Amino acid sequence: MGEDRLKIVSARPLNPRSLRLEFSNGEVCLFDSHRLRGPKYIPLMEEKYFTAPQIRDGDLGWEGLDVTCDAKYVYDRSVPYDDNAKAKEYVPTRKDIIQERIAIVLFPVMAISGIIGVIWWYIHN
In terms of Cα–Cα distance, which of 47, 43, 40 is closest to 19? Predict the structure, then answer.
């Protein structure tokens, strides 16, 4: 009496933040990285990780990271995808690479600025 567990059968990046996923039930869906919440997913902000998906026992993982998402979790957070012949494999452009590098630098700067602001407010109030 084996239970038919939903599995991911293929994963392909379409852009730096979206994956085209095919599930064992035959559905093709679009999964956006913004659906991932929590500190363990922070490394996936880097394009080099998010655009290197791996299928691990039917679940979604990423090359070089110890992060795996259950197929059902991903399916529940995906939207149906119209699989047309014009959809191409994602190849990062120079603009994408520059934007990623800027975001990687600005994120810690903004975090540190926020911490300094809180400390300044605490000292002066």
Answer: 47
